Every structure is written in C-alpha cells, then in structure tokens.
Amino acid sequence: MTDTDVTLTVNGTSRPLGGTPAHTTALDWLRDTGLSGSKEGCAEGECGACAMLLATPTPDGGTAWTPVNACLVPVYALNGQEIVTAEGLGSPEDLHPVQEKLAEAGGSQCGYCTPGFACSMAGEYYRADRAPIDASAPAHDEDCPAHDAEHGPNGFDLHALSGNLCRCTGYRPIRDAAYSLGSPADSDPLRQRLQEPAPSAIPTDAVVDGARFVRPATLAETLRLLHDEPDALLVAGSTDWGVEVNIRGRRAPLVVAIEQLDELRTLSIEDDVVEIGAALSLSEVEKRLDGRIPLLAQLFPQFASRLIRNRGTFGGNLGTGSPIGDTPPALLALGARVVLASVAGEREVDLAEYFTGYRQTVRAADELIRAIRIPLPLAGLTAFHKIAKRRFDDISSVAVAFALDVDDDGIVTAARIGLGGVAATPLRARATEEALIGQPWNVATVRTASEILKNEGTPMSDHRASADYRSLMLGSALLKLYSTTQRPQAEGIDSKEVPA
C-alpha cells in the first residue's frame, strides 16, 4: 500500500493520510490539516469537545451518522471511511439547523464545547427512528416518553448528549435547542447521504517511521498475523488504548484493527444461547437486542456515554482485563462464556475463570476474543447497580450485577452475583450466592447474605472511594434489590438501609 492509497473523506472531500505517524488520533490529524473546530478538552473521551460524525452501515444497507470521539480513534482506522466535522455541517453564512437552533437558544456559551455538541446533536437529528411524540398520550402511560424528562416532544433523546460536557453549565439552552429541532428536509445533503451505503472497510497496512498499523481483511488473516506477531496490539473501538496514547504517551510497534471484521460483528439468538460478536459496538448490541436481555438493558445507559458506546465493545472491555470495567460484572451474573480464537481453533472459557490477575487473563498472546455467549434461559430476577460520583459518563466505584431465580414457593433456587471494583479482577460473589441458594427470599435471608456480601473481594481505598464506602455499598446492594420486589416498610426494612 502506497501513501496515496490511504485516504479519508472529510466533509465530502477525499484527503490523503499517507506519512501520518501511526499513533496519530483523528483529532490531532484533523487539527493538523486545518480543521480546528474539533477541540481537545480531556483527551480521554469524557468531554465530547472533539465529537465528529462517522458514516456507519445500517442493517438495510444504508448509512447512519454516528457521533464518536475523534480524540480516541486512530486516524488510520478511518482509511477509506467518511466523516463530517462541525465545519462540514454548515458555515456562518449558511448554518445547519442544529447550529441555528443552538445560536437562537443561546446555547453556545463560551463556544469551546459547541462543535462537539453540534455533532452529537446532528447525529440524533438524523436518527432514522426519531419521531415527534404524541403529546395527547395519557400521562400515566409508562411506555410514553412524552413525560420522560430525558426525551423531548420531537423525540430527541438527551442521552445522545451524555458524553458532551459544557464548562459554562449552559445545559438548559442546549436542551432547549435540541428539543426545538424539526425533521431534516428532503433536500438536506446529509439526509440524502443516508440512503446510500456506508463505505466498506478497506484492508490497510501502513508503516511510518518503523511503526505499523494493520487492518486485516479477514479473521483468518488476523489470526495468522497474531500467530506470527504475538506482541501485536489488538484495537477495536480504541476507547481504552486511545487514552493510553493521549495521556500516557504509549506507543505500539504494531497495531491491528479488528472492529470491522465481519466474523466479529455477528449477533445470534438461539434456543439455548445468545452469541454476541466481540467487535460489535455496545450501541449496536443495545439496538439489536432491544431489551431481550434485561440485565444488559439496565447496564447500557450507565456505561460511559453514547459517544463511548458507539465505539466501545464487549471484546475490548474484557480484553483489557480491567477490574473496573462495567460489562464483566453483568456478564458474570449472566453466566457468560468467552470464545477465544487462534490459528489452532477455538476454545470456550467460563468468564468466571477468565480473569487471573490485575489486567491479566487466560487469553494467550496469539488469541483474540471472537464472541461472548450468554446461556438461556435467563434468570427471573436481575439488576445492575453502579455506584459512581456521577450518574452518567463516569467510572464506577463499585458495580454489582444480580441474577437470581426464585420459585413459586419463594425459595431462591439459583444465584449469580458479579462484582467489579472490589478486587484485582472482576469476580463472582460465591459465598453470598451460597448463602442465598435454598433459602426463602425474605428480609432475614437478605440481611444475612448482605453481611457476607459486604466482605466479598478486597475493597481498597483510592480517589474514587474508600474501602469502607465500597464495603458499605456492597452490603446495601442486596437490600436495594430486595426492596424492588417487596414493600420495605411492610417487611421491616429501614429506608436508611436502602440507598437511593
């Protein structure tokens, strides 16, 4: 591959990437080429000032404008792809409807975050299934989002902006601008673009100053490369590696991009198992499952932000081996298994046996995670509790996932509890599970099990929480779950025992 073969379409114009250092992020490349609308606020994917729109494929063969953090995406991962930045939405002489509404509402404040807000807002503006809400629907209709504080009368989902932070605290006018948006005109070029296919992934092999970025064409080619180059760094959404590059100055001699491999982007629901491809973004999984797995449906809105979920993957969250990832506790509670692939074939590992130490797993250097398998049927009672300093877009101090079965006689017949943030690895709360199984689902059982749960793991003190606080949150988590299935006052539970 020559330098002229590596290109990216930006705001409708093809631009060469050749010669760019292999570790360069899309944000740095954009600013170096003169497109300075995208800003660097945090370089960690938390503020959204760098948001851009990426053309991604839809199931019907069309395109969706998907907002992503430019600060985390390796620019070579965009070879042959198409993006739109704030400059491509409109100009001072011809504002885009999103930009116009932001200006009218006074939503720009100091303006630093505005380009990112505009791109995230535009992604929601062009969402195919966004539609005005019937305001005449009765207020008691729980399925009607007209009375949901996080949706506007035009169907705008405020979670689309959950990854965008305004330093001037100007959220009300930004929300007002979002809720005043109509539907895109038929003549809107970006709307018309949605009817055409998204760009296909282009195999890439770029070497600059000794560093190499590779996008293999197939899974077989990827596995062969891993076999020959066991030190290669696998990157999917790059929501973790991008932070390492930006904040810690990490560099890798060989990066292998796998997020567009068709073999890693499948999702199937069989009679006895749900299999989720390791490279499907969390947003794609959320949409395809459509609530089929209630525990994951609770997890998704609490996992970082929409900008991160548009790139982050199950495979990446498990592949890092981090003890504070949000998906492992939920997957542990679901009894998930990990499918590992290499040139020698595939093997399946119980997730409870997958983690071996801090950021260490049983995955060999020449293996990658191909899929996650969740057995069916699902437990009857599930919940995901995330304790963090912010409601959204934050790292958890403690994450607890429950999956219990209670029979008609009120006896707990099965229990799986996944924990995150309380040990060097995510883990199952085995002792608590044993204390529940075979016991009546009542306040006495729950209190006894809660005392055991508070001592599971080895909670430590850090900048997110103290060890005592983590232990307290563990101890109250089961009581909180129980309170959702009973009337606390009638069962003698003090409301102070159940945190909000």
UniProtKB/TrEMBL annotation:
It comes from the Bacteria. Keywords: FAD, Flavoprotein, Iron, Metal-binding, Oxidoreductase. Residues 1-14 have a biased composition (Polar residues). Gene3D superfamilies: 3.10.20.30, 3.30.465.10, [2Fe-2S]-binding domain, CO dehydrogenase flavoprotein, C-terminal domain, Uridine Diphospho-n-acetylenolpyruvylglucosamine Reductase, domain 2. The keyword Flavoprotein applies. InterPro entries: 2Fe-2S-bd (IPR002888), 2Fe-2S-bd_dom_sf (IPR036884), 2Fe-2S_ferredoxin-like_sf (IPR036010), 2Fe-2S_ferredoxin-type (IPR001041), 2Fe2S_fd_BS (IPR006058), Beta-grasp_dom_sf (IPR012675), CO_DH_flav_C (IPR005107), CO_DH_flav_C_dom_sf (IPR036683). Pfam families: CO_deh_flav_C (PF03450), FAD_binding_5 (PF00941), Fer2_2 (PF01799). Residues 206-379 form the FAD-binding PCMH-type domain. Residues 1-22 are annotated as: Disordered. The keyword Metal-binding applies. PANTHER family: XANTHINE DEHYDROGENASE SUBUNIT C-RELATED. This is FAD binding domain-containing protein.
